[in-house]
Design brief:
386 residues; alpha/beta; Rossmann fold; 2 domains; eight-stranded parallel β-sheet; 8 strands; globular
């Protein structure tokens, strides 16, 4: 008989959402942020109580930090790493004695982003909490090092977690206290999701075999309905889960733009794109050599948006298209005259501020190399495309 899923949609239930945190974690948060977001304010009471929780909120609502901060707080209260003592005293439970918090993302690129973004709160809190990243890209040497010195926080993918739970390295997971499953809506109704659910049960059984309790499960989801079904997928049929619905509609600036006067003849009024080489690598995706192509008119529009905003993501249909678009935008940007661009409300920066001509963008496809994924991911927040 399954236990009922509890639902909580009150996003302002606590007057002081930070009251359960330690002074140094609270101090760091208050220095960096004005106040908790609705997802954080509503999520922390459930998470800090040890309940399984599903937090539903839009992208950019702070739900990832909502899931992590309580785990960071709990880890920061443990004794600092002491390898010598850990070898002599089997009961020593300080940092560095095993993985306590596992973060699972179905998106490999998101795992790299989260690993990088966690560095800031860990530095701010001032605790020697270690982070490990295990994906299909992780070299064998790093995997072996992780087994010898397990990270306090493990960031991984569903497939890599399965491999860890079913191999000798599972010994570092016997003390896991909580599992965060991000973007859970992306796998909830798929075979991949069913496989992840089995992996979570294997992990729970592993922890129980060593005398521990079921790891707390924290799911993060974009606005998805029905949330109760997603919550049941997260915890299984015999556990309860508190649903925190902090969903809200984001304000969108949505428009359909046609940059040519006549779609039936897009080349009738050609747009000057100086310096672009229309030979060689042009193809059906972005065929500039075709006089009826609309792309020569699109490039200046896209470049203007890139220059007006702090960060811009442009989606195209395939890898070849992404690489060609990045090449064209960079060529066009570097042929524009050097001049001070006006300040914009979106945080865009002038060429002069950036030290002269620089790349306008970089391409990242679905399965880039580890080095390319890291380079592109790290450059976007710095507004410094690789």
């Amino acid at each position: 008989m399954s236990e009922p899923t509890q639902s909580s949609t009150e996003t302002g239930a606590q007057d002081d959402p930070l009251r359960t945190f330690s002074p140094r974690v609270r101090s760091w948060f208050e220095r960096v942020f004005e106040e908790p977001t609705p997802a954080q304010a509503a999520g922390w009471p459930a998470i800090s109580s040890g309940k399984n929780a599903l937090i539903s909120a839009p992208t950019g609502s702070g739900k990832t930090l909502a899931a992590f901060l309580w785990g960071i707080d709990r880890l920061s209260r443990l004794p600092d790493p002491d390898p010598g003592r850990a070898k002599k005293d089997a009961d020593f439970t300080g940092l560095g004695t095993g993985t306590r918090l596992v973060y699972v993302s179905p998106l490999k690129a998101l795992s790299y982003d989260v690993e990088r973004n966690l560095r800031a709160p860990l530095r701010g809190v001032g605790s020697p909490i270690s982070i490990g990243l295990r994906t299909g890209d992780t070299p064998q040497a790093e995997r072996q090092a992780m087994r010898r010195t397990p990270p306090d926080i493990l960031i991984t993918t569903p497939e890599s977690l399965y491999l860890m739970v079913t191999s000798g390295v599972r010994e570092i997971l016997t003390g896991v206290e909580a599992v965060i499953v991000d973007e859970i809506h992306a796998v909830a109704q798929s075979k991949r999701g069913a496989h992840l659910a089995l992996t979570l049960e294997r992990l729970a059984a592993l922890v129980r075999e060593e005398g521990g309790e079921d790891p707390q499960r924290i799911g993060l989801s974009a606005t998805q309905r029905p949330l109760e079904r997603v919550a049941q997928f997260l915890v299984g049929p015999h556990r309860s889960c508190e649903v925190v619905d902090a969903g809200r509609r984001k304000q969108l600036d949505l428009a359909i733009v046609v940059p040519v006067e006549d779609m039936s003849d897009p080349g009738a009024n050609p747009v000057e794109t100086p310096g672009l080489d229309d030979g060689g690598d042009s193809g059906p995706d972005f065929g500039e050599i075709n006089p009826r192509s609309i792309w020569p008119a699109i490039y200046p529009e896209l470049l203007a948006l890139v220059q007006e905003h702090t960060s811009t993501i442009i989606f195209v249909n395939n890898r070849r298209g992404a690489e060609r678009l990045a090449k064209r935008l960079n060529e066009l940007a570097n042929h524009e005259p050097e001049q001070e661009l006006p300040a914009t409300e979106h945080g865009g920066h002038s060429r002069a501020e950036n030290g002269g001509a620089s790349p306008a963008g970089g391409a990242e496809e679905g399965s880039p190399s580890r080095s390319n994924r890291t380079a592109v991911g790290e450059s976007l927040p710095r507004q410094d495309p690789p």
